[in-house]
Every structure is written in structure tokens, then in C-alpha cells.
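Practice problem: predict the structure.
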Amino acid sequence: MISKLPKWVEFGALILSLIAGFVNAVGVLGFDHQSISHLSGTATLLGTEIFSGSLQKAFQFLGILLSFLLGASIAGFLLHGSTLKLGRHYDTALFIEFILLLISSWFLSTGSHNGYYFALAACGLQNALATTYSGAIIRTTHVTGIFTDLGIMLGAIFRGDRLDKRKVKLFTFIIFGFISGGVLGALCFSRYQFMALLLPAILCLLLSISYRTYLNRTSSR
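Answer:
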């Protein structure tokens, strides 16, 4: 149950959603309003470009989907499951996300759009850090599912069910983090352009180090 999860879960979800909101804001502002942290709009655009016969753009959108898929595959290889379990290679996955965002920032700052695909792989990897919390699948790179689950919970409350306060707290942290990341991403992009991606990269590195330190302290007790 969610009540048995460690207290740092909400903080970790907040930082991860802030990272995703930040990266997505850079994508929206730097790539003609193209999202990076989720793919629903991209899949729709792929379909419309195939219909219109624009193969060049269709292949571009296909590359976006495949880059995201590659990042998610890396997480799938490392983590072996979706339920939160200490000891899994979350630190390794976060370190790889750090590297991907660094590479993305470098390519984009030199004018190469190849950096876009590295940012997509980073978001795909983070999105695959999905964890099952008390029956709800939580992903930190978009908030569609979060609002859906909140709506379900509200409906259940009107039916007389008990409110899961910690789950509401977790959802609130994720929504707040994603929106705050969007604000921060827009601010940093306006000043530093694609070098702004260094900030979420550093946050990934700090999370990776923090998780490894926590594991070491836990195992030494």
C-alpha cells in the first residue's frame, strides 16, 4: 500500500515531474510547439503527415516515436518491473538520463537537431520509471493519467468511498512539479536557449547520487 512507501517518494516524484515539465517546455518553445515528454500529439501528427503524403515529416515524427521507445527500452532492461523496489538500478537509469540530456544540450546548442532525439530518449527513459502505487500507475513525464485518477477518486468519494490522502498528496506533488518545471523551463530557455537543459541534467545526476547514497546507508544498517 502507498502508506508503507518511504517518505522520500513524494519528493522524488516532485523532482522527476519538474524535470519532465522543464524539458517539455524547452521542446515546446524550441521546436514549433512539439512536445518531448509525451507522444500523443506526435502520433497524431504522424498519421496526418502520412495522409498528406509528406514523407519527410512523417519519417521525422517516426524518429521521435522510436527515440522515445529506445529510452523506455533502456529503463526496461535495467529495472525488471514496475513496482517500486529498493535495490533496482534507478540510479543507473537516472545517470543515463543525465548523460542523454547533456548530449542533447550540446547538439542543440551547436545547431544540430539530433539533440532533439536524445532529449526524447531521456524522457522515454524517465517515463518508463513507472511505479505502481496502490493500484495506480504513476508516470512523471505527463499528467493526463494523474488527472484521470484524480477524477476517478473524486467520483468514488461522492459514492462514499474513503479518500486516500497520501495518494492525493502524491498526485498534487506531480502536478505541481510538472507545472513548475514548465515555468522554470520557459524562463531558462528565454535566457540560455538550449543550454537550459543542463539544469534538468544536473538534477538527474543529483537524484542518482542521492538514491545510491540512500541505498548504501540502508544496506549498512
